[in-house]
């Protein structure tokens, strides 16, 4: 597969990691009927992302071969990304199982997992900033900010949609607005990077309007909506779709 | 230690013999080029100047293809040649995407990438790289960069001509005896 | 966790480089242990280089070029060009014809049975050699019985055909254009090139002694690929300045940073007159420009003082240029509307040509392959003589052609030739090639027979030809390389039988009925190849056994001759092995005493190994050395005694060493050459004089205007088309090689200003229309082409869309017709055409298209 697999990985995995982080921020203790829901969704999305990512690799046996013959290049962004992703995935999986069994899991475990989630999101972005063949990717502030803020904002949207956080609460709403602002800055930087590289920034503009702008407007007008559940889902959808559109365009700048 | 190419623009006619010789040595089908020559002109009729350049892998000091290769398939030989071991390649194309010189090439049917190895095997047999030996105009050379500098003079460009990306990214081992017009921002490709 | 720990290290330092030794094996040469064989590169390509192929496990796995000795400018390696490097894709191409083929719809017997309209469209069936020879010979005998030897046509001279049936020949001015019109009569050597001792150009080491080299219609980087351009580079590095007079700022000129004088094709005569005018003006004003002594001592006809004895009119070049006869002085301002050269540049050229500069005018023949260029050779030599530029070191007025470009003089090493039984064609009639097709279509007709071989003209013999019913294609690509291709295709469809010997589905083969598969040189016993330069004699040997059922030309000839019941020995009295031996035995090398000596030592065992009979001999190298080195290169030194200066003997002592002209001098007024031309009885001779005058060409720049007058309204075909010899091919050869199709896209050359005004961008598909045909090509929009000019690379394999009649390949000759005027020159370079953006589907890249035909 071409770059679609990487797109799927950084989008699904990124959103999952973002959601995990915010759940840890906003709910110190898991409760309710389905405490395992968010960990489950996170693990599922991340797993799909990793499967998609492995489709990018043409030969798993050769990948294994590089492990056994000791040539693996830990200096490469991709290996770091995979390694941290793997750690995050394992921790998230343990967390999910513990939660299944005990209806909650130790906060310390969740914090460590969240730290790996953040690292994971950062590495997903930094893996591209020294891909010198692509001037859009190597625009480091734009790439890192739009990836990280996109993952976090969409992750928060997912938390909200899954009921792991409540947009009606001030801290959550404020965080959402803050994330939208950062994401908007990131996407604005992307628009500039696209233009500088001679690529059309149209999809980045669409992403900007659909994700941070729309979700911020909806969040600010939250009181006007009767159906909070529906609002949360719409905010989540807007963020994921907007980020997806922009990120697809990001990958499409590569001729491959 | 670093090895790299020398190109003399005052001798290069853009004849593309190096391009075909490289395909021969590496048995490359149409669509894949490890080396390719292009010609450019500067100015407008009737005041025009022209230059040609033969693009290839520069066996960079900071080879980003190597840096970004997850499996370590790309490595440096002791002499500095940047070589890829295809048996370790997982076809992730990070090298292809990373190289600002568009160098490693991906083979979709084989699911692996490939690149110029500076004809390492030929050099071990005492021969020059195929493209160097095949250039009818003696515009190309290959070797230890310090030796090349000693041979061709220190007044060589390290890859700042207008048709190349900035050498600051990967510190390519390319030494160019330039034509003045090769620095003009108005250069246009001559597609004859 | 390593990944985490290393997170901050985003730079790519050597720490990330992996040690090769313990983790990876280093590459080895995959072709190691194969065998290197000297392989033929035998085409009419402009070079003669060393080509070696590595054969491993029966397959060619790699090629290389000369690495037999250290490379130096004194003793250069004979490195090959881009085409030679793809030679394997020619010999082993998927489109090799491996078995005799018969066109399905064809039956012997003529008329309806031949189903001629299907030529080029029909399917092919594989037949046996027995059947192929039987069918062909039956048909040849039938035609021979009914129509006699003039019932056949073949362009090239051919031993097999001389014995088989006889045939009417076609003649053409191809390579040297108007230089083929017997320039010996005015004192130049035959076709002024590669003539050895008589070469008018100097030895290569003398190039650097010139202050200026004027490359007139000359692009050695493309048309003399291989070694020659290195001599020019050497001169440039030693300080010689280059000037390029060409519609295209070509690859050689660009690389050499030559000063460019853009000129319209086919208008060089106007420019030359103006330069001569300026030389006279400057000489008059400040003196020191014209070498009057030279003119008076070595030439006749420049001025009234120096007229030849056999003159019939009292006119001379000088007074013509000054306007004495027509009231029109040939000033730069007069010339500019014609040739497009700015008057300042004309003046500059006149100054450069001053007798006080060391100048070499080195020309190729593109400008002589133009309508109206009949008198160009005479005007060019006059220009050189005005500055005294010949016979001295640093001076020359000469051609720079083919493998000899920039390296004149007698061969220092040469191949022998096999003495074979002499055969001759029972038919002596030659037809001007482009007219041939009309005669064939009309079932015969009148021809003014003035020549039946390249460059050898004779008093005209008016001849009535009967029907021609059979076309033979033996060793040329005439249907592709001659003018009037569209009519040529029609002619091929009109006859009873077309027989072609071919290695590939060439255009000749495609429009024929039976194709007999010929081996390439890689499948034969070996040889030397023609056209070698004076210092290097390439020698090649067999690379592989014949592919498929291919046979050599001789084997096929023998089968055909036997097939009609004659004795093959009438044409071939020696085996190919014996012939090769004789060629080797006859190789000569220059000795210290200036005499040619035997090159190769041959022992009795060597001769046996060659499957030949002969006497052993003593030479300076062994047969093994000849084979392993891929020939012999004569070692040169800058100041050795093997230099050469063109015209030197004549200039040193004109009485003792007269030229071949009647007066023994260079004839700027040449009655004999004029008389020869006049005798042809071709229309338009009224425009010509025994000295050079401006002639309005039948087709040329003037024809781009509605009323034929320069400066008026542009006509239907406003562009001038020319055919650069292109680096993808040697004429038609190599056009099928994928690597070359990828490397050289074969676009149409358009100037930026024309493209912009036509709304054409680089890469757009363009429709070319001439009065004769239509073709498609992608546009190469360039700043290095003079506006108004259109370059259509020579030799692309025609690919006619039978629905639309448009040629998808951009074949040059599909756009050119047959002009029955002028003195018979094939005017490739001043044809007219129109250019427009094509509205149909874009053409795509040639290299992405399947081969014309494939054996698999
Ligand atoms: N419009 C236009 N036309 C031109 C020119 C131009 O500039 N413009 N240039 C002209 C010039 S200068 C020339 S010299 C002519 C060249 O015209 P040609 O001589 O007709 O051209 P080639 O393509 O060299 O043809 C050689 C043919 O011989 C075949 N061949 C090679 N080896 C063998 C062999 O061993 N046996 C047999 N039987 N066949 C073999 C090749 O496959 C090829 O088909 O073209 C002329 N035509
Ligand atoms: N690559 C390649 N090399 C070849 C051949 C080939 O087919 N391909 N064929 C070989 C053969 S047989 C021949 S005859 C030679 C031909 O060799 P050349 O005669 O050198 O070939 P051309 O490319 O036709 O012309 C050379 C230059 O003349 C310019 N020119 C064309 N018309 C005019 C004109 O009217 N006036 C002036 N001043 N310049 C003009 C062209 O732009 C070109 O730059 O090449 C030989 N070498
Ligand atoms: S072979 Fe030599 S002259 Fe030709 S394009 Fe390559 S470097 Fe330039
Ligand atoms: S040119 Fe590209 S492929 Fe070659 S060493 Fe440098 S970064 Fe690697
Ligand atoms: S494609 Fe192969 S060589 Fe290139 S980075 Fe991936 S594994 Fe390494
Ligand atoms: S060194 Fe060898 S592999 Fe590299 S460009 Fe030259 S011919 Fe190709
Ligand atoms: S110039 Fe001619 S002989 Fe030399 S390599 Fe090219 S095609 Fe072969
Ligand atoms: Mo020719």
Automatic annotation (TrEMBL), chain A:
Know the name of this protein? DMSO reductase
One GO cellular component term of this record is: plasma membrane
Which PANTHER family does its entry note? ANAEROBIC DIMETHYL SULFOXIDE REDUCTASE CHAIN YNFH
One GO MF annotation is:
dimethyl sulfoxide reductase activity
Name the InterPro entries on file: DmsC
Gene3D superfamilies the UniProt entry points to = Formate dehydrogenase/DMSO reductase domain
This protein's species is Senegalimassilia faecalis
Q: State whether keyword Membrane applies.
A: yes
Tell me which Gene Ontology terms the entry assigns under biological process. Answer: anaerobic electron transport chain
Q: Transmembrane region positions? A: 6-25, 37-57, 77-100, 107-129, 141-165, 177-196, 202-223, 230-250
Classify the source by domain of life: Bacteria
Keyword annotations for this protein? Answer: Membrane, Transmembrane, Transmembrane helix
TrEMBL record, chain B:
Asked if Hydrolase is a keyword of the record, the answer is no
Write out the GO MF terms.
4 iron, 4 sulfur cluster binding; metal ion binding
- Cite the entry's keywords alphabetically: 4Fe-4S, Electron transport, Iron, Iron-sulfur, Metal-binding, Repeat, Transport
* Coiled coil, from the record: none
Q: Start and end of every 4Fe-4S ferredoxin-type domain?
A: 3-33, 80-109
Q: What's the domain of life for this entry?
A: Bacteria
Q: Which Pfam families match?
A: Fer4_11, Fer4_2
- Quote the InterPro entries the UniProt record gives: 4Fe4S_Fe-S-bd, 4Fe4S_Fe_S_CS, ET_IronSulfur_Cluster-Binding
- Please report the name of this protein according to its UniProt entry: 4Fe-4S dicluster domain-containing protein
Q: Which organism is it from?
A: Senegalimassilia faecalis
From TrEMBL, chain C:
The yes or no answer to whether the keyword Lipoprotein is present is no
Annotated Molybdopterin oxidoreductase domain residues: 96-556
What GO annotations for molecular function exist for this entry? Answer: electron transfer activity; molybdenum ion binding; molybdopterin cofactor binding; oxidoreductase activity
- For this UniProt record, give its keywords in alphabetical order, as a comma-separated list: Metal-binding
Note the InterPro entries from the entry.
Answer: Asp_de-COase-like_dom_sf (IPR009010), MoPterin_dinucl-bd_dom (IPR006657), Mopterin_OxRdtase (IPR006656), Prok_Mopterin_Oxidored (IPR050612)
Q: Which Pfam families match?
A: Molybdopterin, Molydop_binding
Q: Where is the signal peptide?
A: none
CC terms in the record's Gene Ontology section: outer membrane-bounded periplasmic space
- Domain (Molybdopterin dinucleotide-binding) spans 720-816
Q: Which SUPFAM superfamilies match?
A: ADC-like, Formate dehydrogenase/DMSO reductase, domains 1-3
Record's protein name:
Dimethyl sulfoxide reductase subunit A
């Amino acid at each position: 597969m071409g770059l679609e697999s990487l797109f799927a990985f950084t989008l699904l995995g990124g959103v999952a990691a973002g959601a995990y982080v915010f759940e840890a921020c906003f709910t110190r203790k898991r409760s309710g009927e389905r405490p395992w829901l968010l960990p489950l969704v996170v693990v599922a999305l991340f797993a799909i992302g990793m499967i998609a990512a492995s489709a990018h690799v043409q030969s798993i046996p050769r990948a294994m071969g590089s492990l056994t013959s000791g040539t693996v290049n830990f200096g490469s962004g991709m290996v770091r990304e995979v390694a941290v992703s793997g750690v995050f995935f394992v921790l998230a999986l343990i967390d999910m199982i513990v939660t299944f069994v005990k209806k909650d899991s130790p906060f310390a475990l969740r914090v460590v997992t969240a730290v790996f989630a953040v690292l994971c999101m950062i590495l997903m972005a930094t893996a591209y900033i020294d891909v010198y063949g692509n001037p859009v990717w190597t625009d480091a502030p734009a790439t890192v900010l739009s990836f990280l803020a996109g993952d976090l904002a969409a992750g928060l949207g997912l938390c909200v949609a899954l009921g792991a956080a409540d947009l009606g609460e001030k801290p959550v709403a404020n965080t959402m607005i803050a994330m939208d602002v950062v994401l908007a800055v990131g996407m604005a930087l992307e628009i500039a990077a696209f233009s500088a590289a001679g690529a059309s920034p149209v999809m980045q503009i669409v992403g900007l309007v659909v994700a941070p702008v729309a979700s911020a407007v909806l969040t600010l007008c939250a009181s006007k909506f009767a159906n909070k559940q529906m609002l949360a889902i719409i905010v989540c959808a807007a963020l994921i779709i907007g980020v997806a559109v922009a990120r697809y365009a990001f990958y499409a700048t590569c001729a491959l | 230690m670093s090895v790299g190419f020398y190109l003399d623009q005052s001798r290069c006619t853009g004849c593309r013999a190096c391009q075909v010789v490289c395909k021969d040595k590496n048995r490359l089908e149409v669509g894949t080029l490890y080396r390719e020559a292009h010609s450019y002109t500067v100015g407008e009729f009737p005041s025009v100047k022209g230059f040609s350049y033969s693009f290839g892998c520069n066996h960079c000091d900071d080879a980003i293809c190597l840096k970004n290769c997850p499996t370590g398939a790309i490595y440096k030989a002791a002499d500095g040649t940047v070589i890829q071991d295809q048996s370790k390649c997982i076809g992730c194309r990070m090298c292809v995407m990373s190289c600002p010189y568009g160098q490693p090439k991906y083979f979709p049917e084989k699911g692996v990438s490939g690149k110029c190895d500076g004809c390492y095997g030929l050099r071990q047999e005492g021969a020059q790289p195929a493209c160097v030996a095949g250039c009818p105009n003696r515009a190309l050379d290959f070797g230890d960069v310090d030796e090349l500098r000693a041979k061709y003079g220190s007044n060589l460009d390290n890859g700042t001509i207008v048709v190349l990306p900035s050498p600051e990214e990967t510190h390519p081992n390319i030494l160019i005896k330039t034509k003045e017009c090769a620095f003009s921002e108005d250069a246009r490709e001559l597609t004859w | 966790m390593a990944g985490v720990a290393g997170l901050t290290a985003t730079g790519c330092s050597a720490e990330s480089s992996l040690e090769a030794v313990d983790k990876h094996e280093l590459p080895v040469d995959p072709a190691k242990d194969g065998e290197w064989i000297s392989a033929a590169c035998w085409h009419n390509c402009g070079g003669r280089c060393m080509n070696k192929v590595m054969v491993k496990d029966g397959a060619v796995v790699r090629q290389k070029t000369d690495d037999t000795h250290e490379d130096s400018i004194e003793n250069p390696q004979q490195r090959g060009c881009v085409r030679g490097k793809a030679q394997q894709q020619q010999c082993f191409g998927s489109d090799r014809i491996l078995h005799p083929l018969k066109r399905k719809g064809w039956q012997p017997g003529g008329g309806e049975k031949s189903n001629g309209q299907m030529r080029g469209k029909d399917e092919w069936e594989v037949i046996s050699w027995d059947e192929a020879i039987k069918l062909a010979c039956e048909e040849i005998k039938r035609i021979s019985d009914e129509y006699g030897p003039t019932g056949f046509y073949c362009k090239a001279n051919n031993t097999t055909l001389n014995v088989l049936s006889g045939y009417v020949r076609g003649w053409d001015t191809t390579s040297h254009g108007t230089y083929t019109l017997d320039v010996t009569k005015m004192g130049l050597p035959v076709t002024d090139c590669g003539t050895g001792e008589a070469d008018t150009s100097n030895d290569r080491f003398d190039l650097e002694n010139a202050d200026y080299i004027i490359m007139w219609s000359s692009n050695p980087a493309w048309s003399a690929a291989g070694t020659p351009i290195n001599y020019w580079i050497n001169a440039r590095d030693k300080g010689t300045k280059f000037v390029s007079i060409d519609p295209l700022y070509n690859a050689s000129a660009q690389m050499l940073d030559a000063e460019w004088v853009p000129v319209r094709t086919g208008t060089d005569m106007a420019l030359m007159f103006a330069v001569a005018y300026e030389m006279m003006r400057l000489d008059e004003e400040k003196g020191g420009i014209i070498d009057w002594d030279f003119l008076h001592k070595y030439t006749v006809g420049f001025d009234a003082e120096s007229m030849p004895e056999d003159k019939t009119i009292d006119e001379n070049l000088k007074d013509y240029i000054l306007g004495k006869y027509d009231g029109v002085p040939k000033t730069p301002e007069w010339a500019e509307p014609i040739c497009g050269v700015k008057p300042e540049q004309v003046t500059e050229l006149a100054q450069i040509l001053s007798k006080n500069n060391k100048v070499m005018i080195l020309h190729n023949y593109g400008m002589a392959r133009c309508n109206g260029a009949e008198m160009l050779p005479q005007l060019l030599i006059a220009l050189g003589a005005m500055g005294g530029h010949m016979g001295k070191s640093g001076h020359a007025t000469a051609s720079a052609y083919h493998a000899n470009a920039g390296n004149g003089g007698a061969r220092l090493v040469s191949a022998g030739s096999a003495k074979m039984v002499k055969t001759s064609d029972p038919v002596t009639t030659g037809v001007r090639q482009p007219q041939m097709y009309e005669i064939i279509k009309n079932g015969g007709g009148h021809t003014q027979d003035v020549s039946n071989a390249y460059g050898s003209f004779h008093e005209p013999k008016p001849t009535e030809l009967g029907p021609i019913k059979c076309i033979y294609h033996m060793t040329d690509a005439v249907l592709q390389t001659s003018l009037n291709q569209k009519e040529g295709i029609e002619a091929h469809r009109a006859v009873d039988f077309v027989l072609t010997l071919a290695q590939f589905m060439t255009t000749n083969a495609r429009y024929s009925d039976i194709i007999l598969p010929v081996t390439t040189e890689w499948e034969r016993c070996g040889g030397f190849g023609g056209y070698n330069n004076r210092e290097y004699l390439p020698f090649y040997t067999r690379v592989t056994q014949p592919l498929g059922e291919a046979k050599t030309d001789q084997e096929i000839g023998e089968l055909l001759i036997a097939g009609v019941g004659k004795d093959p020995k009438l044409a071939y009295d020696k085996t190919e092995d014996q012939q090769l031996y004789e060629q080797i035995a006859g190789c000569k090398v220059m000795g210290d005493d200036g005499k040619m000596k035997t090159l190769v030592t041959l022992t009795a065992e060597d001769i046996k190994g060659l499957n030949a009979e002969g006497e052993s001999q003593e030479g300076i190298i062994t047969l093994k050395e000849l084979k392993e080195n891929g020939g012999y290169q004569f070692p040169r030194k800058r100041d050795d005694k093997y230099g050469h200066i063109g015209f030197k003997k004549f200039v040193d002592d004109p009485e003792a060493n007269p030229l071949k002209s009647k007066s023994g001098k260079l004839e700027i007024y040449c009655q004999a050459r004029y008389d020869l031309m006049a005798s042809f009885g071709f229309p338009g001779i009224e425009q010509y004089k025994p000295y050079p005058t401006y002639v309005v060409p039948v087709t040329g720049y003037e024809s781009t205007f509605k009323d034929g007058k320069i400066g008026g309204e542009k006509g239907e075909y406003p562009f001038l088309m020319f055919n650069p010899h292109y680096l993808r091919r040697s004429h038609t050869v190599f056009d099928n090689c994928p690597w070359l199709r990828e490397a050289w896209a074969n676009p149409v050359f358009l100037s930026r200003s024309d493209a912009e005004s036509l709304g054409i961008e680089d890469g757009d598909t363009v429709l070319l229309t001439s009065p004769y045909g239509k073709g498609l090509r992608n546009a190469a929009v360039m700043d290095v082409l003079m506006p108004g000019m259109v370059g259509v690379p020579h030799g692309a394999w025609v690919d006619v869309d039978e629905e639309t009649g448009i040629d998808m390949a951009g074949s040059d000759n599909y756009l050119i017709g047959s002009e029955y005027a002028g003195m018979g020159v094939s005017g490739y370079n001043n044809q007219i055409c129109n250019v427009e953006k094509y509205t149909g589907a874009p053409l795509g890249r040639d290299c992405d298209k399947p081969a014309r035909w494939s054996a698999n």
